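Input sequence (341 aa), recorded before submission:
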Amino acid sequence: MRVAVLGVGRLGAFHATTLHAHPDVTELLIADADPARAAGTARRLGAPARAVPSVDAAFAAAPDAVVIATATAAHPGLIRRAAGAGLPAYCEKPVATGLPETVRAVRAVGEAGTVLQMGFQRRFDRGYAAARQAVRTGRLGRLHTIRAVTSDMAPPPPEFVPLSGGLYRDCVIHDADAIRWITGRDIAEVYALGTDRGAESFRSAGDVDTAAALFTLDDGTLATVTATRYNGAGYDVRMELAGTVGQIAVGLDTRTPLTSVEPGAAPGPAEPWAGFLDRFALAYRAEIGAFLDVVRGTRPNPCDGREALTALLVAEACESSRRERRPVTVAEVADRAAAYG
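Predicted structure, token format:
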């Protein structure tokens, strides 16, 4: 199988390494907005990787599939281009930072009848998968409360902030997708708040560096979601799920950056999680392996563009709620999105 990787920044380079090691990949084409970075990645990996001078050259080489890990602004155009070429595509979330481009890209894939697998790696994390199994089999009884946490150890570079789509679209969107995937329920309504007491780059972009949201699921289950760019103790991604019979936690292990102050409690972790590639390395590898299975036709698409659009609707509802300081239904945002179709 010949696969093109478009964009070899931090995550794209990780995907290229995963693909390079996969026995089914016979040629790995690497393109980046910085040709020198593409060449350096190909040189580091060695055969069967080779750099191509541009995205145009990657498409011209007629690969069997493409992996899109460019800056978010380029995602929708590349998704539409892959669809137009009849190529299955994997793309890191989000499809786009806004609803119009997301709707149009997802529609293009549907009209072309091609495959688009979106990158929500928590679906491939063993802890989140175990939580899904526990909920779906009734082990917790009636689920009533979910508590989700997404905390970066340090803020991103200032230049990334205005390109990220904001804290809800960049981070909380993962929690929204994970909650839907685990529970099998839709998120009906959100109420979100945020603060911007950190770097000026957040205020300049109209973004926040810390957020909290209350989700009401369509069956009445309540979920709280918190996110921050400033968690100096370490990278912290967790979820607690409580039901009438049992309660479980995802992401609570020896590297969780959390220290109990109870007498006699164990000390904090010696090596807390530092970032998303550290915490989710196995999940990212499994996700790319699943994409190759999808391309071969041996498994169904585990997360298509419609799922990504639904998660974005929740993030958009959070942003509207924060700005307008009111509860917002996801149906209200979906109606707005329908106008772009």
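Checked by second reader. The chain has two domains: 2-122+285-307, 123-278+309-333.
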